[in-house]
Design a protein that fits this description.
single chain; alpha/beta; 7-stranded mixed beta sheet
């Protein structure tokens, strides 16, 4: 796994030298978690675009964001200002997407690129909501983008050129991987990569706290847990063993009696959620 991390580190260094960020202005409509994730990732990689405007109806949210990222410009309650930038990112939840689109469609530049960061609303539906504006893309953001290890699948609308796609891909590259995917699969990625960390983080943190309580320092826990988690995932996905064979590699399974219950939660809750976020 060290080799994997070394390659990532080298590639990120190369990106800083060879992939300058776009000189176009960015406008975020919505200043919540997704906006913070992207800004944090760019800032840590010293790739924050030169001009960023963020609007949100919550002035306190914008004040906190401004405190963390002093270079950004905030526009409380003025989504039209964000929407008048060169690249417009719709960082709002699906329940308010239609309302937001109606409010900004008159502010978009003809040559702007509008990017939805939410599931459910297809490029075709967004085009309709934006009064025929078709220069659109969609991304499912991944929280590990904050440390340049994100997996941010993107789907591009048919109105975009190869140059448009290259420019936006270049914008995402400092955050991690950004494969172009079939738009119809974005909602599956929302469950797998967009929400996936939430299925694991609380369990990993509980294990971390127990290990510290049993006598390891956090300095000792961090490299051990990192290797364990990455190695476990790669063993399941890359060993060539069947899932049953992988799970039989360790004879002692302290949580075995709870595994059916946890698996059942996945099988019941996630399909229901998938139905809610499907277009």
């Amino acid at each position: 796994m060290n080799g994997g991390y070394s390659r990532n580190n080298v590639s990120r260094t190369e990106k800083k030298k060879t992939n300058p960020m776009t000189n176009k202005t960015l406008g975020f409509v919505g200043g919540g978690r997704i906006t913070r994730i992207l800004l944090e990732g760019w800032q840590r990689q010293k790739q924050l675009p030169a001009r960023i405007v963020v609007s949100d109806c919550n002035a306190e949210t914008l004040a906190k964001l401004k405190g963390r990222f002093p270079a950004i410009e905030t526009a409380p309650g003025n989504s039209a200002h964000s929407a008048s930038q060169d690249i417009v990112l719709l960082a709002v939840h699906p329940p308010v997407m239609a309302e937001v689109a109606a409010g900004i469609k008159g502010s978009l530049k003809p040559g702007a690129l509008v990017v939805s960061l939410a599931p459910k609303f297809t490029i075709a539906k967004l085009t309709e909501l934006l009064g025929g504006f078709a220069r659109l893309a969609r991304v499912i953001p991944n929280a590990p983008s904050v440390i340049a290890l994100g997996f941010n699948p993107v789907a591009f609308g048919p109105a975009l050129t190869a140059a448009d796609k290259a420019e936006f891909t270049n914008l995402l590259t400092p955050l991690g991987e950004c494969p172009e995917v079939n738009e119809a699969k974005l909602e599956v990625y929302a469950l797998l990569t967009g929400m996936g960390p939430t299925y694991l983080w609380f369990q990993l943190q509980a294990l971390r706290e127990l290990a510290i309580g049993f006598g390891l320092s956090d300095t000792e826990v961090v490299p051990a847990m990192k290797r364990m988690v990455c190695g476990a995932a790669r063993t399941l996905l890359e060993s060539g063993l069947t899932p049953s064979e992988v799970m039989d590699l360790i004879p002692v399974k302290p949580l075995a009696e709870m595994e059916p219950q946890v698996a059942e939660m996945y099988r019941t809750r996630l399909p229901a959620l998938f139905q809610k976020i499907k277009p």
